[in-house]
Amino acid sequence: MANCIYCGKPAGFLRKRHPECEERHKKVLDLVPRFFTEVIGSPISADRFSDLLLAATKAAFVRPQELRSICVSGINKAIDTILRERLLTSAEMQRITELTDTLSAKIPGGLDLDQKLIKLSIVNELYDGRIPDRVSIVGPMPVEFGRGESVLWIFNQVL
Q1: Is 111's pLDDT higher than 90?
Q2: Coil, strand, or helix at residue 10?
Q3: How far apart are CA 83 and CA 127, in angstroms?
Q4: What is the pTM of this model?
């Protein structure tokens, strides 16, 4: 008799899973990415959200790699939903960064969304008419800048 791939308890003769365990698992995998869109404007703290998320996914037998994947998917979905209408506000950027940092600390391997968040921040600064100052150049410059000119870091494949 094999054990259930979700809960680890005996599943029965020639079975790999309990139907109720599989249903619970699928339901959480479908629902969790939607929560991220709603939590951006919610007053719930990032710590509380991550604790609730971890408890719900643990109860649904979500493995750490799956959890990482659905968190990345959820955050990307939330960002893309907002970007369809407009650029992110600084408050939304701060909230997404806070959520990402909190979840990265609690999920093995982190979320690796730093590059995307930095690019979004740069785009917001450019849109606001500010020149991002994220690059420090040490030593002599091969090019001499005129008054009011500065280095602007440009990146490919934005968003």
Answers
A1: no
A2: strand
A3: 13
A4: 0.74
